[in-house]
Specification:
Blueprint lengths: L1 H30 L4 H10 L3 H22 L6 H23 L10 H17 L7 H6 L17 H20 L16
Length: 192
């Protein structure tokens, strides 16, 4: 059963990577002057950006807890830093989505940006591009380079974390910007 859940989480990660890649392509197209796809995505997400971000953060938090508490994978030091960036987002996004506080989303963006940076560094350690620190080696069996999962030839725990952080950056950016591209300033009781 544990392996089935790991494969399901990895499959969700691959789907999230496809969505993140789509957001990047749409962003590049918008910078190049092709704004139709950006308007279409903004229109489709309008009013649900924070709820979508909450779902991503909740799935990442639940997956992280599954790995440590059910699968019994010992989180390394870098995993803990990634958790520090993800766990608060689950609760904060739920509260902001419930209250409709879209203007507050911009203040949450540093969490996934820092988390993505830690995830990238973790991937570099895991793939032996950079060496492990003494703290990494002492924090978990095998240190931060241990690949507790390796699905589809590349999906590891830091890959899943980076996917979640990338999606959160995009969704929070959409929530921070109004439908017309201006900063969101709606009050909690305003219609969206």
């Amino acid at each position: 059963m544990t392996h089935d859940v790991i494969v399901a989480l990895a499959a969700l990660g691959v789907a999230g990577q496809a969505l993140a890649a789509l957001l990047v392509l749409v962003g590049v197209a918008a910078v190049a002057g092709v704004r139709g796809p950006l308007r279409a995505i903004r229109s489709a997400l309008w009013g649900y950006e924070l709820w979508a971000a909450f779902v991503v953060a909740a799935l990442a938090t639940g997956g992280s807890l599954f790995f440590s508490e059910i699968a019994r994978f010992v989180p390394c030091e870098l995993c803990w830093f990634q958790r520090i960036c993800m766990y608060p987002l689950s609760l904060l996004l739920l509260f902001l989505a419930f209250r409709g506080e879209y203007g507050m989303a911009r203040y949450l963006i540093p969490f996934p940006v820092v988390g993505a940076g830690v995830s990238i560094y973790h991937l570099l350690v895991e793939n032996k591009v950079v060496g492990q620190t003494a703290q990494c080696l002492a924090s978990a069996p095998g240190g931060c380079a241990t690949k507790w999962i390796d699905e589809f030839g590349y999906v590891t725990i830091p890959t899943l974390a980076l996917t979640g952080f990338a999606l959160l950056i995009g969704l929070l950016a959409f929530a921070s910007v109004g439908e017309t591209g201006e900063p969101a300033t709606l009050r909690a009781d305003a219609e969206r």
